[in-house]
């Protein structure tokens, strides 16, 4: 097996285990044992646990980011489509990491500082898409995209830390958004509140 393939398998395995056990509950010994390899080989590829975990966090985020950015490039995506894609993308990322890992990240300065860059990316996405919705005339005039984007991100993050199920959280997010939109926007949100829209993550 070549080095890149092996690295990829280690990353996939570590991401799965991180979501179950968090940062504090997973060691390099655990990963080496789970991968049926020597610690020496693991450390040759990833010189420290912190280095391996940071790559895993970045890799998890990149998949969702790429989906969002591809959607943004599509000419047929309305601002409302982009809003739901962005909100669901952030929610999907947090749920893919899992409550245990999020709590560890939140409590550990080293990992928290790495994740803050990711948080800044998503905050800017929220600001941009809400501003787009306001320009299109969907948002109520008194709604300020910058301040609401911060509140929205905080609500989603804290709900994930509390272990709120994905489907319940999506419903909560849509209900929260519903109060900010003019009638045309509310109709669109109500379509997304239909039960069959909640079965699949982004």
TrEMBL record:
Outline the extent of the HTH tetR-type domain.
4-64
Keywords in alphabetical order: DNA-binding
Write down a Pfam family by its short name. TetR_N
DNA-binding region per UniProt:
27-46
Q: Which GO terms describe its molecular function?
A: DNA binding
Annotated protein name in UniProt: TetR/AcrR family transcriptional regulator
**Organism of this sequence:** Bacteroides faecium
């Amino acid at each position: 097996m070549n080095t890149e393939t092996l690295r990829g398998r280690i990353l996939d395995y570590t991401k799965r285990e991180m979501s179950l056990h968090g940062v504090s509950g997973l060691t390099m010994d655990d990963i080496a044992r789970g991968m049926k390899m020597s610690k020496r080989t693991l450390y040759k590829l990833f010189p420290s646990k912190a280095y391996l975990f940071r790559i895993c966090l970045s890799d998890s985020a990149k998949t969702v980011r790429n989906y969002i950015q591809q959607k943004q490039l599509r000419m047929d995506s309305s601002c409302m489509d982009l809003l739901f894609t962005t909100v669901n993308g952030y929610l999907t990322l947090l749920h893919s990491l899992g409550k245990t890992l999020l709590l560890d990240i939140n409590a550990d300065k080293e990992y928290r500082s790495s994740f803050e860059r990711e948080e800044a990316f998503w905050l800017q996405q929220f600001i941009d898409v809400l501003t787009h919705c306001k320009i299109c005339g969907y948002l109520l005039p008194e709604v300020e995209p910058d301040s609401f984007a911060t509140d929205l991100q905080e609500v989603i993050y804290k709900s994930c830390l509390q272990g709120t199920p994905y489907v319940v959280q999506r419903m909560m997010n849509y209900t929260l958004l519903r109060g900010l939109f003019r009638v045309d926007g509310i109709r669109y949100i109500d379509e997304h509140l239909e039960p069959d829209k909640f079965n699949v993550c982004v």
